[in-house]
């Protein structure tokens, strides 16, 4: 009779094996633990007879960059994730003004969490981001082709991304540019050459308070085929940026796929005191940032300041549930927000971001989530200006949509769209 004792050493499973799991958040938790602990990964010890290790491929619908941390999702798998990009804007504002020091260890931990913990979220939001970036880029290129925004034919189209984090949005810029090129007709080599020399280049300025995030963002920009600038054009008066130094690891500007030159600058700074001049940018991007800034209204007002009239601002934010129609969910969000803020660098689960948008002077039309065709009403180019623009402050418009992101549990309520300055 067997005594039930296994003789010989037990095979030890490597803690970071990429094993599929049907439990929401379990895979993210495992990857996050591995990234934070430095435990052996796919190449660690494996049970005898097991197959070769395989690095998990990015989700089919995701560009392949993790965006936001899955901290609460790691601790409570039934809750999709707790994430905030540009997180810690309280620290950002203090650091930018010299009033406080950042915690390097926490910054590193949080940057790794955002880089390796948000595959599920990015896969879920990817179709929506694809449509929104198509709208943003289409509008900016349409305005650029008519010469609006000044600066001559060779002046770059400048886009500010606040809270760029680890850079998961770079592939969406790339895809949107490719779509624009395809819409312009078959691109011959001659057309590609003229595009490289005659079309206005795009300059993406990525802002984040966490220097550890920017390390991942540099890698993401290079992977997307964009060229990195060592010294950005910030408000310090050094408008002649772009010379860079030889230590800047740049990949050549990729024109083969999008037909347009793209450069990227990465800047440390906070959302509530943007280090840029008034009307400096043609457009802006803010995704999963307003949940963590101390004053989202101040951050949105700063965006109105630095984006020129007629410019477009892409917004994707998780928000608090409507208290009248979903009181229980809103109650749970409020109860978990203190833990969320501690784990996710200041993120709040129950922010009323739409109220902050309006308080900052923006006046977008608010659209309900449709049964199908999410992007309807958020069309490309000038069609995005479906908003009333009638709420004080002039011609601000655009459209935002309220919707639930499937599978995100307490983080499902979202607000997204493209606003027009």
Automatic annotation (TrEMBL):
<dbReference type="Pfam" id="PF08241">
    <property type="entry name" value="Methyltransf_11"/>
</dbReference>
<feature type="compositionally biased region" description="Low complexity">
    <location>
        <begin position="234"/>
        <end position="258"/>
    </location>
</feature>
<feature type="region of interest" description="Disordered">
    <location>
        <begin position="1"/>
        <end position="62"/>
    </location>
</feature>
<dbReference type="InterPro" id="IPR052356">
    <property type="entry name" value="Thiol_S-MT"/>
</dbReference>
<feature type="domain" description="Methyltransferase type 11">
    <location>
        <begin position="262"/>
        <end position="314"/>
    </location>
</feature>
<feature type="compositionally biased region" description="Low complexity">
    <location>
        <begin position="178"/>
        <end position="196"/>
    </location>
</feature>
<protein>
    <recommendedName>
        <fullName>Methyltransferase type 11 domain-containing protein</fullName>
    </recommendedName>
</protein>
<dbReference type="InterPro" id="IPR013216">
    <property type="entry name" value="Methyltransf_11"/>
</dbReference>
<feature type="region of interest" description="Disordered">
    <location>
        <begin position="233"/>
        <end position="258"/>
    </location>
</feature>
<dbReference type="GO" id="GO:0008757">
    <property type="term" value="F:S-adenosylmethionine-dependent methyltransferase activity"/>
</dbReference>
<dbReference type="InterPro" id="IPR029063">
    <property type="entry name" value="SAM-dependent_MTases_sf"/>
</dbReference>
<feature type="region of interest" description="Disordered">
    <location>
        <begin position="177"/>
        <end position="199"/>
    </location>
</feature>
